[in-house]
Specification:
By secondary structure, the protein is of the alpha+beta class. The chain contains three helices and four strands, in the order βαβαββα. The protein has a single domain, classed as Glutaredoxin. The relative contact order is 0.25.
Length: about 80
């Protein structure tokens, strides 16, 4: 399973989603779109969104901390 979190250091919802993944022992790649221009472009192409957090769970895009959708995709 591949989980990518597109986030910024100042985003409270980004911290919440990353803490949630950690609390459930889900490994993820964190891409800081504030510093990683290519990461930001990739996020916008995948999601059409400029806001964070955006999650890519095995190719399925989740906008924001949508716990119900995240739980379903990760079988939690």
């Amino acid at each position: 399973m591949s989980v990518i979190v597109y986030s910024t250091p100042t985003c409270p919802w980004c911290h919440k989603v990353k803490d949630y993944l950690k609390s459930n022992s889900i490994p993820f790649q964190d891409i800081n779109v504030a510093e990683d221009r290519n990461g930001a472009v990739e996020m916008i192409k995948k999601s059409g969104q400029r806001g964070v957090p955006v999650l890519d769970i095995d190719g399925t895009i989740v906008i924001g901390f949508d716990k119900e959708n995240i739980d379903e995709l990760l079988n939690l």
